[in-house]
Amino acid sequence: MSARDPLLPRRANQKTAGQSYFRGVSEWVCGCCGRWRVSVELIRGRHRYRLVRRYPARFGGGKDVIGEVGSVAELEELLRRRTPLGLADLHEAA
C-alpha cells in the first residue's frame, strides 16, 4: 500500500479519527466464576467503568453489557444492585 492510499490514517498518532479517543483498557474479573467483568477505559480524559456479564460457550457464549458508569462509587452501587458481587470480589484479569 502506498502512502497516498486513502485507507491509511493521516493522524499524528497513526489511529483513525474514531479510535483517537481510546487510550487503553484494563479489565477486572470476579474471583468466583469469571462471568462478571468490569472494563476500565480512559475516554476523552475520563474513566468509564463498564460491567459485563459473559456467558459460557456451552450456552452459546456472548456477553451482555449491564451498565456503564463514571466513578467507583457508581460502580459499587451498580454491582450491589445488579450482581451478587462487591468491589472486593474483583481481581485484575491476566
- The strands making up the biggest β-sheet line up spatially as 4-3-2-1-5
State mean pLDDT (0 to 100 scale): 80
Rg, rounded, reads: 17 Å
| Total of helices | 1
- Terminal Cα span: 36 Å
Count of DSSP E strands? 5
Quaternary organization: single chain
The helical percent reads 10-25%
Largest sheet: number of strands, sense, barrel closure: 5 strands, antiparallel
Low-confidence stretches: 15-22
> Which structural class best describes the helix and strand composition?
mainly beta
The gross shape turns out to be: globular
Strand content: 35-45%
Run of helices and strands: EEEEHE
Write up this protein.
- This protein has a domain at 22-84.
- It is mainly beta and 94 residues long.
- Helix content is 12%, strand content 38%.
- A hairpin with a 5-residue loop joins strand 1 (22-30) and strand 2.
- Strands 4-3-2-1-5 form a five-stranded antiparallel beta sheet, covered by helices on one side.
- It contains one helix and five strands.
- The chain has one helix at 72-82; strands spanning 22-30, 36-43, 46-54, 63-69, 90-92.
- The radius of gyration is 17 Å and the shape is globular.
Write the layout of secondary structure elements.
Elements: E1 22-30, E2 36-43, E3 46-54, E4 63-69, H1 72-82, E5 90-92
List keywords for this structure.
5-stranded antiparallel sheet; single chain; mainly beta; 94 residues; globular
Put the structure in a nutshell.
The protein has 94 residues and is mainly β. The chain has one helix at residues 72-82, and strands spanning 22-30, 36-43, 46-54, 63-69, 90-92.
